[in-house]
Amino acid sequence: MPLPQTEAPGRLQAELMSRGLRMTRQRRIILSVVETAKQHLDASQILRKARKLDSQVDRVTVYRTLSLLKRHGLIDELDLMHMQGEKHFYERRPQRDHIHMACLRCGKISEFESNLFDRLKGQIQRDCQFHIVVTRLEVGGYCAQCRTASAA
Amino acid sequence: MPLPQTEAPGRLQAELMSRGLRMTRQRRIILSVVETAKQHLDASQILRKARKLDSQVDRVTVYRTLSLLKRHGLIDELDLMHMQGEKHFYERRPQRDHIHMACLRCGKISEFESNLFDRLKGQIQRDCQFHIVVTRLEVGGYCAQCRTASAA
DNA sequence: TTAAGTGCAAATATTTTGCTGTCAC
DNA sequence: GTGACAGCAAAATATTTGCACTTAA
Predict the structure, then answer these.
(1) Is CATH 1.10.10.10 the classification given to domain B1-93?
(2) From CA B101, how far away is CA A121, in angstroms rounded?
(3) Measured between alpha carbons, how far is residue B140 from residues A50, A82, B143 in Å?
(4) Using an 8 Å Cβ cutoff, are A59 and B84 in contact?
(5) Inter-chain contact B147–A133, Cβ cutoff 8 Å?
(6) H or E element: which one contains B133?
């Protein structure tokens, strides 16, 4: 029986521990915030949510933990086309890469998986002899709703 | 007869003037730096090169001009997988979108055009009803040379 | 016990803004 | 002549670093 898409919480924590890293109170909190986020969060939002759970979490620890997770390939960093200043957003690395589409009018972020994208990555690896570690495909434009609204 | 790939310099300048924008001494210099760049430059590098041509160019003017060019869709902003801090890099918007590949070992940036990428964009527009204005596909990994070197 | 991790303060890096004076058209 | 633009200073934003203290293993 295949596992459901939404894995049990604590996966990030298990991954870090299996790599021999120390599981501190602060890390546990930050990991749970990242893991249960319903949208893409930036460092300040992660800090705020972490402090709701435990006021003793420092901004620097958030940055250091995000950097750790990124180094270990457990989260991906997004820019979302720089629509909200120069913030970076984070999400748990998905099982299958997806595309981020940012609506330049309403700001909505949508995600899209595509076989063509998977094939494109294969083509890059073959044709360029390039071993892919991480990809980021971001698209800026107008979503269905805003397209219609503009036309009206 | 089709135009050659490498257009005559001054194209950016012509584009801005045709949009009714003022062509100042500073803008002319910054545009020529961006236009003749042989690699992707960030704001500070553009400033430095501009000042070699005319010491009377301010950093703020570089930022304002880059922002103007971006708003008009004449240049694209790249992050190059944040390999060199949080700088942004700029390039004239190409006639055909390409992929940027950043080697995590040697730092080399390569570019790649692909029909699959063009088809993927078409798929996004159709399947998501999303009107694409700008795309950015960046890939981090290991280039052919560094792959070999690591294996050795 | 002890090396890894945290917090605090300060530094660094990048980009933006307010305002006054200048110049392209 | 006039409104768009440039320069300067200062602010805002985002992230990193040094160092002493704390804690997980």
Answers:
(1) yes
(2) 11
(3) 30, 19, 9
(4) no
(5) no
(6) strand B131-142
Distance B21 CA to D4 C1' (A): 9
H/E run at residue B75: strand B75-78
B1-93 against B94-152: fold identical: no
Residues 69-128 of A with CB under 7 A from strand D: 84-88
CATH of domain B94-152: 3.30.1490.190
Looking at residue A75, the DSSP 8-state letter turns out to be: E
Chain B residues 126 to 145 whose Cβ lies within 7 Å of strand D are: none
Locate A97 and state its tokens: 């890469």
Q: Which residues of A touch B142 (CB under 8 A)?
A: 130-131, 133
Which residues, 6 or more positions from A115, have their beta carbon under 8 angstroms from its beta carbon? Answer: none
User: How far apart are the CA of A62 and the nearest CA of chain B, in angstroms?
Assistant: 17
Q: How far is CA B60 from CA B36, B46, B65, in A?
A: 21, 12, 9
User: Is B64's CB less than 7 Å from nucleic acid strand D?
Assistant: yes
Report the length, in residues, of chain B.
152
- CA nearest A27: which of A10, A41, A40, A42? A10
- Strands annotated E in chain A: 41-42, 75-78, 89-92, 99-103, 109-112, 131-142
Domain boundaries, chain B: 1-93, 94-152
Per-residue pLDDT of chain A (152 residues; tens, 9 = 90+): 443 434 445 899 999 999 999 999 999 999 999 999 999 999 999 999 999 999 899 999 999 999 999 999 999 999 999 998 889 999 999 999 999 999 999 999 999 999 999 999 999 999 999 999 999 999 999 999 999 876 55
Q: Which residue is nearest to nucleotide D12 (CA to C1')?
A: A85
Chain B nearest CA to A103, separation (Å): 8
